[in-house]
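Reopening this one. Same input as before:
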Amino acid sequence: MSRKAAVVALTALAPISWGSTYFVTTEFLPADRPLFTGLMRALPAGLALLALTRKLPQGAWWWKSAVLGALNIGAFFPLLFLAAYRLPGGVAAVVGSVGPLFVVGLAALFLGEKPTVKSLLTAVTAAFGVSLVVLKAGAAFDTIGVVAGLLSSLSMSAGIVFTKRWGRPEGVGALALTGWQLTAGGLVILPIAFLIEGAPPVLTGANLAGYAYLAFGNTAISYFLWFRGIERMSASSATLLGPLSPITAAVIGWVALGQALGTVQVLGMLVAFGATLAGQLSPRTAKTPQTQAPEAESFSAAEKNGQEVSMDLEVSEVRR
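Same output, byte for byte:
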C-alpha cells in the first residue's frame, strides 16, 4: 500500500466511526438532549488529550484553536444532534451530504482550489447516492431540523478548510491540536447546554457507556485521524470521504436493528462509494496559497520535504 493510500485509509476510519453515532444516540443516550450530548462527546475527550499531550496553544494559536474548535466542534455538534433529533435519520443524512459542495466553494475562496467539473460532479453524485441509501418515501421535513442540518454541514466544511489553511504550529502533533479543538468546542457548548437544557439528566449505565464510546472512540481517536488526514489531503478529497458515514449507518441499521436494505439502497451505496473513490483516485493537486503556513502543505509536498508525521511519532509525543 502506498503512503498516500495509507493516509486515505486511516482518514476514512473517522467517517466510518461517525456512522455509528445515530445508532448510539437513539439506542443508548437520553432523549432530547442534543446540547448535553454534544458536550459529553467533546469536552471529556478534549481534556483527556490535553492531559496526555501536556501542550497548550501559544500566541495566535489561542484564537485559531478557538475558531477551529467552534467550527469543527462547538457549533457542529449541537447543530448535528439537533438535526438528528428533529429529522428522520435518512433526511438528516441527506441534508448533511451537501458538505462536499460547501467545501468546494470555501476551498476556492480560501485555499485557491479552483472548482472543477470533476469535483462538482463527484460531490453531487455522492449526495445522490446517499439519498438513495437513506431517504424513504413520505419522510418528514422539519424546517428547524433542515436548517440545523445545513448549518452543521457548513460549519464542519469551514472547519475543514481552515484546518487545511492554518495547518498546525511547528513541533505540535495532530493529537495535541485535536485536544485543543475538542476542549475549545466543549467550552463553547457548556454554558449553552446548561442555559437551554438545564441540569444534566440522571444517567443510566447504558447512557454512560454510550457517552464513553462517543467521547473516546468516536471523537478523540476519530478526530485525531481526521485532522491528521486533512493535513495530507486536499480539502475536497477529505470531505468526499463523508459519504462513508451514512453508508456505515445504513449497514449498522441493517445488522443491529433489522432494517431492510433493498435494491435501491444497495445501488445508492455503490453510487456513493464510487463517488468517494473517484474523489481519491485522481485528486487534483491542491494549490498552496502564499499565506498558508508551511505545516499545512499538501500531502505530496510534505512527503517530499520529509515532514510526514507518523502515528508512532504522535504516540512518542504522548509518552514525553
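So the earlier flakiness isn't reproducible anymore. For the record, Residues 72 and 156 are 5 Å apart (CA to CA).
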